Amino acid sequence: MTRFICIQCGTQFAETAAPPPSCPICEDERQCVRWSGQEWTTCEELRARHRNVFNEEGGPVGIGIEPDFAIGQRALAIPAGSGAILWDCISLVTEEAVERIRRMGGLKAIAISHPHFYSAMGEWSEAFDGVPVYLHKNDRSWVMNRHQAIRFWSGEALEIASGFTLIRTGGHFEGSTVLHHAGGAEGRGDLFVGDSISVLQDRRHVSFMRSYPNAIPLNRAAVERIGAAVAPYPFERIFGTSAQRHISQDGKGAMTRSIERYLAAIRD
Description:
- By secondary structure, this protein is α+β, with helices and mostly antiparallel strands.
- The chain has helices spanning 24-27, 43-49, 95-102, 121-127, 184-187, 220-230, 251-266, and strands at 2-6, 12-16, 40-41, 51-56, 61-66, 75-79, 84-87, 107-111, 133-136, 150-153, 157-161, 164-168, 177-181, 190-192, 198-199, 206-207, 209-211, 216-217, 237-239, 246-247.
- Strand 8, helix 4 (121-127) and strand 9 form a beta-alpha-beta unit.
- Helix 6 runs antiparallel to helix 7.
């Protein structure tokens, strides 16, 4: 029995004797199936062909995969007192990555923004003695590997460690989530986002999409809801989904300006 991994999105599935017939995450309109068709790999094959790479990102440590794999996402190990929080996830976990995080005190928890980044969350939890993986219950149907470490949470906010709060924004997925760190940026606050809020190339604005590969925008109500969800929380910095794609100052102002710009662009 093998936990097969979708090559297109990087999601690991529950154990089966043969590869699944399809990947529901990639067949959804927010993602896409490879032009060459559905393909699968395994953790063992990934370790033979790829490696973890690390990047210091203003406090958090970025953990990626080289050569690029799946969507190209990276995880962030965020210092949290006597340990770290892993924000979002990737499909490859190596001894080097485990040792790097152990030097930070190990993992306290894993939290993931939305289904496109679920990847090998079970493997990462197992590497750190079964630490909990926090997913919003509204995205339960997108979990392809119902690992025992998963903790489905409900409502609009959940504190998972001192000063670390998950906030449901919705938008990209119904359960899309961001992570707020009250102690980040020397107490001015950090916001870690997924795809409900996306830091743009100019690193001064964010934007909002239902689907990035298929260019489907979000409507006014969804964007206003995202803005309302994060409005009560102060944040100086916004950390995006790829290395160094961050807004390093006036993150709250950037959010406000970006929402205004977006709504003006989609206005009838």
